[in-house]
Amino acid sequence: MIHYIVGYPHDSEFPVYRQDLPISIANLKRIMGWTEDDECVFTYKLNSEQISHIESAVGIVLSKEYELFLDCDED
């Protein structure tokens, strides 16, 4: 499973930004507050605290000009 961040402009329904995340599901569970294993397959709108924790865990800076969502693809 590959998790990534998708960014949507505030006035659009179409994503314009994507950042793949080299992060384990265990780390995402902690950051996102997931308690069930199957929670990792849904799409989540990220708040500023979650964005900050993801940035720290992965060592990247995410775009702040879009609404950011965590999503995934099964590989």
Record keyword descriptors for this entry.
4 strands, alpha+beta, single chain, 75 residues
* Strand order across the largest sheet: 2-1-4-3
Could you give a short account of the major beta sheet?
4 strands, antiparallel
Coarse morphology: globular
Strand elements, count: 4
* Portion in helices: 25-40%
User: If helices are DSSP runs of H or I spanning 4 or more residues, what is the number of helices?
Assistant: 2
Radius of gyration: 12 Å
Question: Would you tell me the structural class of the helices and strands?
Answer: alpha+beta
Give the rounded overall mean pLDDT: 94
Elements, N to C (H/E): EEHEHE
Count of distinct structural domains: 1
- Distance N to C terminus: 5 Å
Low-confidence runs of at least 5 consecutive residues = none
Q: Approximately how much beta-strand content do the residues carry?
A: 25-35%
Short characterization:
By secondary structure, the chain is α+β, with helices and mostly antiparallel strands.
What does this structure look like?
It is built from two helices and four strands. The mean pLDDT is 94. The chain has 75 residues and is an alpha+beta fold. It has helices spanning 25-32, 48-58; strands at 2-8, 17-21, 44-45, 67-73. Helix content is 25%, strand content 28%. The chain has one domain. It has a four-stranded antiparallel sheet with strand order 2-1-4-3, with no helix packed on it. Strand 1 (2-8) and strand 2 form a beta hairpin.
Write the layout of secondary structure elements.
Layout: E1 2-8, E2 17-21, H1 25-32, E3 44-45, H2 48-58, E4 67-73
Antiparallel strand pairs: 1-2, 1-4, 3-4
Helix pairs in contact: 1-2
